[in-house]
Every structure is written in structure tokens, then in C-alpha cells.
UniProtKB/TrEMBL annotation:
Origin superkingdom: Bacteria
Family matches, as InterPro entries: Entericidin
Protein name: Entericidin A/B family lipoprotein
Organism the protein comes from: Sphingobium nicotianae
Gene Ontology cellular-component terms listed: membrane
Family annotation (Pfam families): Entericidin (PF08085)
Length: 44
């Protein structure tokens, strides 16, 4: 029983950490696109 609980906890933690990394990556991508758009607008 303890082994199953430990395994479930580890799997949940791994999924949560990978989701955070994915969301963080998406945020950086959106920021990069925004910066490129801003640079294009201000460039003459």
C-alpha cells in the first residue's frame, strides 16, 4: 500500500513539474512575440 501511494505521489509531482515547465515556455514564447511586434511597430 505504501509503495502504491509513493508511486502515485511521484507521478503526480512529475506531471505537475512538467506542466509548470510547459506553461513557463509558453509564457516566454508569448513574451518574445510581443517584443518582436513592439520592435516592428517602433522601427521606421
Amino acid at each position: 500500500m505504501k509503495g502504491s501511494l509513493l508511486l502515485a505521489t511521484l507521478i503526480s509531482a512529475a506531471l505537475a513539474l512538467s506542466a509548470c515547465a510547459t506553461v513557463k515556455g509558453v509564457g516566454k514564447d508569448i513574451q518574445s512575440v510581443g517584443q518582436a511586434g513592439s520592435d516592428a511597430i517602433h522601427k521606421k
